[in-house]
């Protein structure tokens, strides 16, 4: 029996805390209460009702000189069971996401991003290669990219599509890759996951290696975007390089479960938005995925067939330190947020983190620290220093 | 009339949310509920009552092989008015902190850290030099260092004492400096603030410049410690270098007010603890400080004599992603936390952020990004690329 999952921290706060204190608690936990809830467009709301997914829409604070774009994030469960034919599993997700994308379009979304490896269950816990490697596709002309090109053209929308990529040109190896598709339908390029976990069930280095596409930023019609996939959110330098390359929005398509990471989830993307003066968008899948064959988790516990609850909770953090509420912890959802890209430079000019960053100093310090004969700068008490 | 300040977010959650949901809300917001409240030692509690400061004590989760030390953080208001003679102001703070240090010693604290520039009001908003520069002292043998040496010897306690430093050896210039004093009473050295704000009332570059002591880590009898002063908490690379040099505990003595930074406060030190596998300790002063002469804040508002409420809320974050509750937003306080330093390596081995960090790559990337002719890695849509 699955345990009853809490629906949302924000809903719980709203439900129990009296208004005067609630305003102050939310200011401290989530940032200034300037976030405006947007009216849901009727047709979009109908799709959300019919298809049973959450649709939440907000507008973040505006600068004097707004350059507003609408971001859409999709979080979802898998549809078909994990032992259905691969083509069935992919097809059912293609259908589902196409419908949610339509609601996004009706809500005026300009840039839409799906969750990590969105066409498949997150099966890397199994350490089996077949059938999971059969989910891999060409980033440039796989079926999923073709679908996203159609969606992009039809809805005049930039689509960021994170998939398991097979790179035929270079030995047919696999990558964890986000494909970026322009609102014209053209494939602009791809961005690979830069940091690969070796943590418990996340045996992903069994399947693919650290990305070699660096920290590209894509100049779309609706702003400059970067993609920091999943475990890369634990690496501040990874976040930083997207900022250095000019990103105004960085997506973090993820797959992560409660016991492992949930207290870190509200912290890392939000800290990146603050430190780098851009919007950071955390997307996590939802639900529990069950596999045919049992596997172990490197934690001394018995073999089992699922590895816990993906807790959704997708959100957007602003460079001003505030954030939106999270989507549900249990339901599919579409988060629509109007953001003002001009806030990025405005906050940068206010806080001056880039100006005061002293990057020259750190480039040298980090370089030195990677040398095999690096001596750490540790101070010992004078009288004892000869001992060391 | 000063507005009524919320006492503490955690108290409000505890007061209103029913137990079952509260456990889940706190797990998500603050990390696993393994934090144990420690019994307050009777004599320490008496001092706290008599002297009217909050005393809170916790034990964080233990590894199989614990190496436990007790950290103490002090947050406080100034005592004398800001127009009292400088020596009176300093003396009153010396007395007050000595008493709180005694309660820390009675609570078994091994390493004690005071707030930023703890011997003075945070007067840098005024942009006046006199009398504020008269608060500056020698790090090696000023009166405040001498007091801290006595406290250290008397209580067998490492003392971290952040002061305004005057460096007579190098032209008598000022620095924002933390002095590290061994439990033997010896001055181990000093660590200067690496990043200086130019934000609103925080005109600190008027008084002192970016520190030149790098990211020293001090091997004390109770673990390796580093000090990242105030605005340095906005800089992930600054946090990182203390970790690279082997810090197990990094203190962040600060002075920061609500309107400006409060939603960032629970995020940044905690993110640093997660990213760098060490304990991070945020300390912020408390109360509103009023000055004789009015000043402006660069925000279009009228001249005024105070710049808002320092919100305290000092806390400790663990490498496991959890954190303690914050001290009061309104009262002086002593936070005593028993931490297990062995957790640092254990969590590092679990999450592998250092192993997967790819620092060689980033050292080069950051170096290149500082070149005057750096070209950002921006991808344009193919058909339009000739335009750029």
Instruction: Count structural domains of chain A.
Output: 1
- Summarize the main sheet of chain A: 8 strands, mixed
Give the largest interface pair and sizes. Answer: A-B, 89 and 89 residues
Please report the first level of CATH classification, the CATH class of chain A: Alpha Beta
- Overall mean pLDDT of chain A stands at 95
Radius of gyration of chain A: 22 Å
- Share of residues in strands of chain A: 15-25%
Structural class of chain A: alpha/beta
Strand order of the biggest β-sheet of chain A: 1-2-17-3-4-5-6-7
The sequence of SSEs of chain A as H and E is: HHEHEEHEHEEEEEEEHEHHEEEEEHHE
Oligomer: homodimer
Number of strands of chain A: 18
Low-confidence segments of chain A, ≥5 residues, pLDDT <50?
A: 384-388
CATH homologous group name of chain A: Carbon-nitrogen hydrolase
Principal-axes shape call of chain A: globular
Kindly report the CATH topology of chain A.
Nitrilase/N-carbamoyl-D-aminoacid amidohydrolase
CATH architecture of chain A: 4-Layer Sandwich
Can you tell me about this structure?
The structure is a homodimer of 388-residue chains. Chain A has a single domain (34-387), classed as 4-Layer Sandwich (Nitrilase/N-carbamoyl-D-aminoacid amidohydrolase), CATH 3.60.110.10. In chain A, the strands form four sheets. In chain A, strands 1-2-17-3-4-5-6-7 form an eight-stranded mixed beta sheet. In chain A, strands 10-11-12-13-16 form a five-stranded mixed beta sheet, with helices on one face. The model of chain A is unreliable at 384-388 (pLDDT under 50). The longest helix of chain A is centred in the N-terminal third of the chain and has 21 residues, at 86-106. Chain A has ten helices and 18 strands. Chain A is an alpha/beta fold. Chains A and B meet through helix 1, helix 2, strand 8, strand 10 and helix 6 of A and helix 1, helix 2, strand 8, strand 10 and helix 6 of B. Strand 18 (378-379) of chain A pairs parallel with strand 10 of chain B, so a sheet runs across the interface.
């Amino acid at each position: 029996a699955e345990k009853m999952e809490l629906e949302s921290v924000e809903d719980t706060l709203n439900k129990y805390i009296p208004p005067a204190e609630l305003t102050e608690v939310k200011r401290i936990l989530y940032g200034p209460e300037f976030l405006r809830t947007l009216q849901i467009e009727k047709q979009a709301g109908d799709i959300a009702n019919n298809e049973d997914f959450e649709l939440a829409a907000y507008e973040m604070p505006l600068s004097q000189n707004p350059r507003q774009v609408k971001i859409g994030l999709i979080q979802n469960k898998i549809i078909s069971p994990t032992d259905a034919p691969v083509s069935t599993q992919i097809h059912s997700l293609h259908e589902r996401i196409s419908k949610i994308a339509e609601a996004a379009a009706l809500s005026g979304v300009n840039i839409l991003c799906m969750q990590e490896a969105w066409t498949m269950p997150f099966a890397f816990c199994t350490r089996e290669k077949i059938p999971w490697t059969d989910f891999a596709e060409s980033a440039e002309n796989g079926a999923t990219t073709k679908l996203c090109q159609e969606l992009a053209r039809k809805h005049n929308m930039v689509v960021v599509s994170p998939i398991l990529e097979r790179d035929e040109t270079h030995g047919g190896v696999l990558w964890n890759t986000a494909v970026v598709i322009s609102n014209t339908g053209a494939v602009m390029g791809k961005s690979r996951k830069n940091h690969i976990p070796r943590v418990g069930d996340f045996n992903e280095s069994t399947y693919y290696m650290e990305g070699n596409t660096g920290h590209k930023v894509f100049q779309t019609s609706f702003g400059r975007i970067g993609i920091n996939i999943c475990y890369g959110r634990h690496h501040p330098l990874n976040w930083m390089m997207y900022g250095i390359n000019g990103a105004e929005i960085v997506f973090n398509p993820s797959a992560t479960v409660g016991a492992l990471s949930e207290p870190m989830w509200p912290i890392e993307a939000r800290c990146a938005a603050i430190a780098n003066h851009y919007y950071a968008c955390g997307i996590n899948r939802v639900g529990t995925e069950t596999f045919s064959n049992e596997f172990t988790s490197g934690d001394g516990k018995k073999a089992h067939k699922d590895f816990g609850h993906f807790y959704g909770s997708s959100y957007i953090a602003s460079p001003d330190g505030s954030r939106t509420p999270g989507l549900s912890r249990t339901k599919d959802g579409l988060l629509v947020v109007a953001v003002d890209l001009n806030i990025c430079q405005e906050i940068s000019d206010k806080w001056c983190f880039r100006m005061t960053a002293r990057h020259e100093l750190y480039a040298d310090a980090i370089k030195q620290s990677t040398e095999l004969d690096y001596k750490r700068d540790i101070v010992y008490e004078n009288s004892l220093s000869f001992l060391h």
